[in-house]
Every structure is written in structure tokens, then in C-alpha cells.
């Protein structure tokens, strides 16, 4: 592990401690849902500008076998911990523009320091773009947190369900690939196989999230039947991807893992769906 890793680990630990403290003090289930929602919002933004837009590159030094997967680890630290934690602080404590601007300035300063220490490389992206994006992201976070107090129905309920389930599915999908190299996708979009795999994974987990949300919203059918159907759908997709050479599997446990964890997530989503429908 390189010296870069200690900076990322330190920032991640601080974010995790703050996140835990605020969640405990919030004493509201909606705070957990809020973190999931804002994490997925960060994931979607990162998919566009980082994965498909090649805007910047993280250099945490965790993984030696693949520079791109190593960069993904840095992206996870940012989008799963740092940014959602700041959003939670702002939302729970109802910080106004002064507090929001302080948070933006602090994140901008960290980004500047990361660039100077060569922990993070900017391509066409600029720190100013981060600041502009956060001036929209953080106020939006306050709106989301307050909206979660009230019952959600219809399309809003479906959108919130998607934003809650997608970061769980996306993280469970890509992390084993980065750590164990158990599978790879080959759409041929980029010269780096890890970049190809990451890009295709981003599309894959979004589609699977929509399937699970659809199953959750269906009123007919027992939960175990729909869970089995989700597993069978993923099994069929896996066979299709293998047949078309879009997918290569390198570990015996891979098909079992990818077919079984989404139905489990679906079963966890049902109580989330009920709580969003009640609000509070």
C-alpha cells in the first residue's frame, strides 16, 4: 500500500465517524434513506463525468494490479463517504448558504490539496466545476431530506426506491470485481479492460435496479416468487452475456454471487418501500 493510501484512509475514517455521529443524532430512519439517495446521486454524476467523461483520475494506491480499479477505490471514498456525509450534515442541521459555502470551500480545498500531492489528477475537469456542482447538489439535498418527511406515491415513490436500491446494487456489483478480478465485461469501448468493465457495470446495475423496483411495485405475486424471478432473470442475462462474449468469468463463485445478491436486496427493499410510502 502506497503512502497515498493513508490520505484516503484518513479522509474516509473522518467521514465515516462524522456520518455515524450524525445518523445517531438524527434519530430518523429517513436519514439512512437520505444517505442512500444522495450516494446514488453522486454515483450517477460520477458515471457521466468520471467513467464516460474521463474528467479526472484518483490515485489512492490501494490496488497494484489495475490503475483504473485503484482509481475506482478513490471514487468510492469520495462518492460513498465524503460527499453524502457533507450533504447529511447540511440537511440534518438545516445549514443555510453560509454553512453550504463553507462545506463547498472545504471540499474544494481538499481537492486542491489532493492535486498538489498527486493523489488526484485533473484532465479537463476543474475545481471550479466541483464548486458549481455542489452549489446545486447541497441545496437539493436539503429539499430531499425535508421531502422524506412526507408520504411518497406514484412516480416519486418509484424514483426514491430506485435511488435507495441502486447504490447498494452498484457497490455490491463492482467492489468484488475490483478486489478479486472475478469477472470482466468487454464492450470494446475503451482500451483499458478495467475501464470497459467499470463502464458496462454502471449500465448493468442501473438496469438491474429498475428491474427490482418494478418487482417491488408489482402488487401481485408472493415476495419469494418475485425474488426467484429476479434470480432467474439475472441468470438468463448472464448466459446471454457469456454467449455474446461481453462477459468473461474467472471465479467459480461468480455466477452464484451475482444471481443471489439482487434477490436478497429486493427483499430488503420491501420495508424501505413501505416506509417511504408512510413518510416520517
UniProtKB/TrEMBL annotation:
It comes from the Bacteria. Keywords: Membrane, Transmembrane, Transmembrane helix. The chain crosses the membrane at residues 6-24, 31-53, 73-93, 100-117, 123-143, 155-179, 199-216, 223-243, 249-269. This is Uncharacterized protein.
Amino acid at each position: 500500500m502506497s503512502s497515498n493510501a493513508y490520505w484516503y484512509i484518513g479522509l474516509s475514517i473522518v467521514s465515516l465517524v462524522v456520518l455515524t455521529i450524525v445518523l445517531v443524532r438524527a434519530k430518523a430512519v429517513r436519514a439512512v434513506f437520505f444517505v442512500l439517495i444522495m450516494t446514488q446521486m453522486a454515483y450517477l454524476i460520477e458515471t457521466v463525468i468520471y467513467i464516460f467523461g474521463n474528467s479526472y483520475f484518483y490515485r489512492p494506491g490501494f490496488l497494484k494490479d489495475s490503475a483504473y480499479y485503484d482509481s475506482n477505490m478513490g471514487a468510492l471514498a469520495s462518492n460513498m463517504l465524503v460527499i453524502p456525509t457533507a450533504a447529511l450534515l447540511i440537511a440534518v442541521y438545516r445549514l443555510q448558504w453560509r454553512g453550504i459555502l463553507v462545506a463547498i470551500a472545504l471540499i474544494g480545498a481538499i481537492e486542491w490539496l489532493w492535486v498538489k500531492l498527486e493523489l488526484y489528477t485533473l484532465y479537463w475537469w476543474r475545481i471550479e466545476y466541483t464548486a458549481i456542482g455542489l452549489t446545486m447538489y447541497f441545496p437539493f439535498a436539503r429539499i430531499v431530506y425535508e421531502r422524506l418527511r412526507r408520504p411518497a406515491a406514484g412516480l416519486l415513490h418509484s424514483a426514491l426506491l430506485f435511488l435507495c436500491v441502486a447504490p447498494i446494487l452498484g457497490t455490491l456489483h463492482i467492489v468484488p470485481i475490483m478486489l478479486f478480478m472475478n469477472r470482466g465485461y468487454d464492450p470494446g469501448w475503451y482500451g483499458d479492460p478495467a475501464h470497459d468493465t467499470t463502464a458496462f457495470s454502471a449500465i448493468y446495475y442501473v438496469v438491474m435496479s429498475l428491474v427490482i423496483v418494478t418487482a417491488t411495485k408489482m402488487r401481485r405475486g408472493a415476495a419469494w416468487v418475485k425474488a426467484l424471478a429476479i434470480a432467474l432473470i439475472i441468470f438468463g442475462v448472464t448466459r446471454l452475456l457469456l454467449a455474446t462474449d461481453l462477459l468473461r468469468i474467472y471465479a467459480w463463485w461468480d455466477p452464484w454471487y451475482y444471481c443471489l445478491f439482487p434477490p436478497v436486496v429486493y427483499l430488503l427493499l420491501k420495508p424501505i418501500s413501505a416506509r417511504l410510502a408512510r413518510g416520517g
